[in-house]
Amino acid sequence: MADAQGSVDTGNPEAPAAPAAPVESVAAVAPTPTNLDLATIQNEDLRGWAETKGFQNGTTENVLNSYHNLEKLFGADKAGHTITLPTDDATPEQRGEFFTKLGRPGDATGYGLKPAEGEDTQFAEWAGAAFHKAGLSTAQAGEIAEAWAEFSGGHIKSASDQSEINATNAVADLKKEWGAAYDQNVAGIERTAAALGMTGDQLVGLRTAMGPKDAMLLVHSLGMKIGDDTFEGGENRATGVMTPAQAKATLDELMGSEEFNKAWLDKMHPNHKNVVSKKSELSRLIAGELPVAI
Q1: Which of 20, 83, 180, 283 could disulfide-pair with 290, CB 3.0 to 4.6 Å?
Q2: Residue-level pLDDT at 138
Q3: Cβ neighbours around 14 below 10 Å, total
Q4: How many structural domains comprise the chain?
Q5: How far is CA 166 from the centre of its chain?
């Protein structure tokens, strides 16, 4: 007897499959963003600041994104290193704190300023106090001190060079003015300065104030007036050498003498040889030369 239920092979249809269970979505459903509840913030200042920024209309993601962008702008490594400029009405203490953050040392000695060679500590102490009051950092003060040293060094060298030039010009002028009497007059200046008790520093100060030439002329004039180095008429006690001006004045006076001219013009005059020798001596002195020994 044939089976009551057929098979696939016999052509009987397969029983219908049971309906599948509903498949849940793999991706989680994203929650709907909600605005920040600023009412939960206890700090009134912070809550007021947040409200002025409009954070009550933003979400947590908005706030975090704002902070993230701010950190990218300043850098996480700069946290705690930012400063705020003092206002116009800031107290001295607030300004001092600001300068300290910029690198100002605790006091003026913190700059470590040293006086230049040959100088006392007065300028370095003054500069340190001025730098500290102005709020300069150690690096800034160092740069200014270095620039000043370079400038002052060049200025001192320039002044020294000019002093040497002035001294050289003074010697040249006096050699021309004093002629053969230059060496004796310089020696006379030294003796006059010693007689007056003038120190080396005083002579240097006099030369700086008046200039080398005028200082030498002044001391020479003092020596002439006290009669230490001169005969009446301006001749030196030791050598009797006149300056060109003195020699010319003497010759002009002699040439105005009838007796001198008579002896000079008359070769047979008993004093002719002496007059000719005197005129020759004075002429050489006028030219700045020493007389020729006969």
Answers
A1: 180
A2: 92
A3: 7
A4: 2
A5: 26
Q: Which residues of the chain have pLDDT under 70?
A: 1-34, 74-82, 227-240, 292-294
Task: Provide the pLDDT for residue 201.
Answer: 86
**φ and ψ at 255, to 5 degrees?**
-70, -20
Q: Is residue 33 part of a domain?
A: no
Task: Evaluate whether 287 touches 249 at the Cβ level (below 8 Å).
Answer: no
Compute the distance between CA of residue 220 and CA of residue 144 in angstroms, rounded to an integer.
Answer: 46
Classify residue 271 by its DSSP letter: T
Last-in-domain residue among 121, 137, 156:
156
Q: ∠20-24-30 over CA atoms, to 5°?
A: 165
Note down the domain range covering 276. 242-294
Q: Which of 113, 136, 156 delimits the end of a domain?
A: 156
Q: What is the pLDDT of residue 7?
A: 47
In Å, what is the CA distance from 247 to each residue of 42, 175, 219?
109, 15, 21
Quote the pLDDT of residue 76: 58
Integer CA distances (angstroms), 71 to 51, 52, 146, 230, in order: 22, 21, 39, 92
Which structure tokens are listed for 16?
């219908």
DSSP 138: H
- Compute CA 48 distance to the chain's CA centroid, rounded to the nearest angstrom: 53
Largest Cα–Cα separation, the chain: 202
195 domain residue, yes or no: no
The whole model's pTM is what?
Answer: 0.41
State the pLDDT at residue 139.
Answer: 92
In whole angstroms, how far apart are CA 281 and each of 74, 108, 274, 276, 294?
94, 71, 10, 9, 10
Residue 183 lies in a domain: no
Distances (CA, A) of 52 to 46, 49, 57, 168, 189: 10, 5, 11, 80, 89
